[in-house]
Design a protein that fits this description.
Rossmann fold; four-stranded antiparallel beta sheet; 27% strand; globular; binds adenosine-5'-triphosphate; binds magnesium ion
């Protein structure tokens, strides 16, 4: 993987990207020409009204969907041009995903949920146990490892989801409204955790949020409107 010191190209390069969905016979233009560079190690917040294309842009960066036109490169991989199978492998190895509703498997313990990406990759629980336990410690849940999701609070579930996203040591951590379902005190704890994770191993983070206070935890905020970037600014953190 090409990674030169002082390399100016961003971890994420979005060039003139559009995304058009077909709803019956109607075309919905979710992204109407977005050009954006996310430098390695940046923590970027994406804001904007409902329907402005935030989740769409995040999904494209994670290889969950493809642009209609334009070019998208993440960590040197041209996602807009790669075959589906390669995009899937890319996503598994280099992207961590965090969602509003945590998306944990209810029948698995916290430790098993964290281990899941590695188990799906053919590894055995006994071989990844130490790594999983150390990540649970990073997110402050060392003593909750055997709990199932229904035995955890919302904030704890999101911590498990963050540990699961980090277990593959992703280059890119994508979070879609990670605090949208949490009270404000718990939300602050989760944002502080994301910020500390970011300072530690420094994956690049892109976070969608409706909360202006949450957005300020990033280094930079872009605001989307009607599928276009209408504002791009640094925060006090940068
Ligand atoms: N799979 C899909 N099929 C058809 N239209 C879609 C699809 N996904 C999104 N859209 C449309 O694309 C537009 C952008 O959607 P997107 O989910 O990116 O918005 P958003 O900014 O994340 O909104 P919210 O803040 O409500 O989550 C919306 O008009 C939405 O209805
Ligand atoms: Mg959304």
């Amino acid at each position: 993987m090409a990674e030169k010191a002082g390399h100016t190209e961003g971890l994420v390069q979005v060039d003139e990207v559009t995304k058009v969905y077909l709803q019956g016979h109607r075309e919905v233009r979710a992204l109407a020409g977005v050009t954006l560079t996310v430098p390695r190690g940046e923590f970027l917040s994406i804001m904007g009204p409902s329907g402005s294309g935030k989740s769409t842009l995040l999904h494209l960066m994670g290889g969950l969907d493809r642009p209609t036109t334009g070019r998208l490169t993440v960590d040197g991989a041209a996602l807009s041009e790669m075959p589906d199978t390669d995009v899937t492998i890319f996503r598994r190895e280099r992207v961590g995903l965090i969602f509003q509703f945590f998306n944990l498997l209810p029948t698995l313990t916290a430790a098993e949920n964290v281990a899941l990406p590695l188990l799906l990759d053919g590894k055995r629980m006994k071989d990844v146990r130490a790594r999983v336990e150390s990540l649970l410690e990073v997110v402050g849940l060392a003593d909750r490892s055997a709990h199932r999701p229904d035995e955890l609070s919302g904030g704890e579930m999101q911590r498990v989801a963050i540990a699961r996203a980090l277990v593959v040591e992703p280059r890119l951590l994508l979070a879609d409204e990670p605090t949208g379902n949490l009270d404000s005190v718990t939300a602050t704890e989760i944002l502080e955790l994301l910020r500390s994770v970011h300072q530690g191993k420094a994956p690049t983070i892109v976070m969608v949020t409706h909360d202006p206070r949450a957005a300020e935890f990033g280094d930079r905020v872009i605001r989307l409107r009607d599928g276009k970037i209408e504002e791009d600014r640094r925060t006090a953190r940068s």
